[in-house]
Amino acid sequence: MNSSSSFPSRSLLLLFLLPLLAFPAAFFTAYQGELVRVTALGQLSWAHLSYAEELKDDMAVIDWSKNLERLPGMRAFQVVLDSKVVAQGGNLEYLPQRPVSGVYFLFPSDWSFQSGSHRGPHLSLKFTVVFHSWPGPFFWGLFAFLSCWSTGAIMLLVSRTGSASGALPAATLYGTGQWPSTLAPEGSFQKQPAMAAPWLGDRPYLFIDKNYVIRQVSPEAAGALLKKAEELRNGHLLDLAPDALLIQAFENGMDAKIQKPFTAHPHVSATLKADSNGYWLILEAMDQL
After folding, report:
1. 74: left (phi over 0), alpha (psi -120 to 50) or beta
2. Element (H, E) at 161
3. What is the DSSP secondary structure assignment for residue 211, as one 8-state letter?
């Protein structure tokens, strides 16, 4: 596969596959980080509350409540002793209807922590707190998804735009005077045939690859075009000022007989034969027809 076809393929892979992988990767990375942080905050708050309750110091509980309310991201909390609310704060609407002991995630970016203990045969102390974490695991995953998707879309757009501008037919370039480079870039050459086809015999010929670069030239063909073989080899077909009919035949990829294929050499005609790697151009003198 050549680079022009592999680059759009890589862009398509980036556009569809990587975003699907990026979302869960970012989600679970953020999830684990927030889980550790909320667990630490919840356990620390519970430890301070337990100490204040053991002292049976109401002012200590009040101070604890005020400090908890000032924590960044704290949405709501509630402390219940048996069925009596001992302390609460924040927006109680954020508290879960059925809190679960431990830490769990509240979509899209909240976390709930609950812990408790028994204070006697019939009394139990329960502490529930909800923290807000922005942007949270879901939005981190969404951000990673959109980043990969937009990067892939831009790469695909750039690659297609480049392919479209670079794929103008030679006939169009010939008519507008926008000539390709005389030599094709190194490493971009089409595969050449190992030697001239046996059926050519000693006839003058040129082998031209699909990039319109002359890869092989016989001494007879060079003489017919009044040039040296070294001058023609690895040069561009358009440097010979080909007739528009010859360019059209190349574009169609069909065998053809062209009278006066080169305007600068009206005494030469040519037969075009397609090959899997390019085209054979067999030259003949007009007086031989």
Report:
1. beta
2. helix 136-166
3. T
- The SS3 call for residue 80 is strand
The answer to whether 150 touches 167, Cβ cutoff 8 Å, is: no
Alpha carbon 289 to its chain's center: 57
DSSP 238: G
Give me the sign of the Cα torsion angle 60, 61, 64, 66.
negative
pLDDT (tens digit per residue) in 38-56: 999 999 999 999 888 888 8
pTM exceeds cut of 0.70: no
Domain extent listing, the chain:
3-138, 198-288
For domain 198-288, the question of CATH label 3.30.450.20 is answered with yes
CA distance 17 to 278: 36
Any idea what the Cα angle at residue 119 is, between residues 118 and 122, rounded to 5°? 80
Sheet holding 205-209, edge to edge: 214-217, 205-209, 278-285, 268-275, 256-258
Give pLDDT tens digits for 238-283: 888 888 888 888 888 778 888 888 888 888 888 888 888 888 888 8
